[in-house]
Structures are given as C-alpha cells and as structure tokens.
Design a protein that fits this description.
By secondary structure, the chain is an all-alpha fold. The chain contains eleven helices and no strands.
C-alpha cells in the first residue's frame, strides 16, 4: 500500500534517474505498481510532492533542534544558527534532489516549490525573533521589526543557493557562509550606533529650545 513517504521516495528516484518529472501520473503510478487514484489520495501533482519533501525537511529540522536539552537556554541568535546548521546538515542526505528541485524551479523570488516550507520557516523565525525582542536582545524598531523574519528568509535563500554551488570538502564554505551571514543579519537586528544617533537626533529635535535657555 502506498504512503506519503513511499511516493516521495519513488518520485525522488525517478527524477534523479531520468532527470525530469514523469510524463504523467498514469505512467508514474504504473511504474510503481499503484492505481492512479491511489496517487491522488496523497498528492494532487508532482510539484506537490516536491513541496512536501521540502516541508518535511523544514519540519524535521525544527522538531530536532527544539528537542535539544539546551534549546531553552539559547539566545535568539543561537537558535537561528542552530536551525541553519541543522537544516543544511540534514539536507546533505538529499543533496541530489535539492539541486535538481531548485535548479528546475529557479526563478526570481521564492520558488513555488519552497512556498509551503517558507510559511513554516517564517512561523519559526517569528517565534525566536519575538523572544529576542522581549528579552531586549534585539532592537524593537518601529515598522522594521516585523520585517526581521523576511531578512532571515533572504539569508536562507542565499545560503541555499551558496550550498548548491559549494564544492568544498564537507561543505565547509557553507558552514562559514552560515556563520558570517546569520551573525551579520543579527548584528543588524541589534541596537547599533545608528540607533543611538537617531535617538539623539530625536532628543535634539524635541528639545530644540534648550540653547536659548542656556544663553547660547
């Protein structure tokens, strides 16, 4: 009997062997000795299978890192780093499929195949970012704080593309890209001299008459 996992596995095997999607659901179902209607009980299309594979990778990563005993002690930055390192470590086991899927769906912006995974990522990112805002680890900037999750997704897309083209041993360069990229992103989320300058500017504007009171 077919299952979600068995169809995913059969699909991955097919596209990596043939270099393309099956000609039709009928052909795919027949090759895997299942009725066509059985396929549709699990998926509505081949793209839906690919979406589910990326979603499963995202969900598995988040589940695994949250189960770590040290997880509650991590800062927002450390939780983001843990996710990135863990996701790309897990992705190594599906590298051939990941490269095929992303290159096939290459487009400007988020590929359709990653859209459901993006929703899961953004929910996770919003959670750890809100923790950082509440603890004052991150700077709560009016209008911009809600976009922090978008910056993390952009960083995810950058690292994914970097990883796909990374030919270093053990993907060491990708680990370096994660470390530098996530840290730079979180540096931007935290209070900076620019914030201090902005606050000082607001203070001067609010107290513009102070020079007259001081006799200057």
């Amino acid at each position: 009997m077919a299952t979600t996992e068995s169809i995913q596995k059969a699909y991955i095997d097919y596209v990596l062997t043939e270099g393309k999607q099956p000609q039709s659901v009928y052909v795919f179902a027949k090759k895997n000795k299942m009725a066509e209607e059985e396929f549709y009980r699990f998926f509505g299309s081949f793209d839906a299978i690919e979406q589910s594979i990326w979603t499963s990778l995202m969900q598995k990563t988040i589940s695994e890192i949250r189960s770590q005993e040290i997880w509650p002690q991590y800062s927002s930055r450390e939780k983001a780093l843990s996710f990135f390192y863990s996701f790309f470590e897990l992705l190594k086991g599906s590298r051939s499929f990941a490269v095929y899927s992303i290159k096939k769906h290459k487009t400007i912006g988020t590929p359709k195949v990653l859209e459901p995974a993006k929703d899961i990522f953004e929910e996770f990112a919003t959670g750890i970012l809100n923790e950082g805002l509440e603890s004052a680890e991150l700077n709560d900037r009016k209008f911009f704080s809600k976009r922090y999750k978008d910056a993390l997704w952009v960083q995810f897309g950058f690292v994914l593309n970097f990883w796909i083209h990374d030919d270093s041993a053990g993907f060491e360069k990708t680990d370096e890209a994660i470390e530098k990229g996530v840290n730079v992103t979180f540096d931007l989320f935290q209070r900076s001299p620019i914030d201090n300058l902005f606050e000082y500017g607001k203070f001067l504007a609010k107290n513009g008459g102070i020079k007259e009171k001081m006799g200057f």
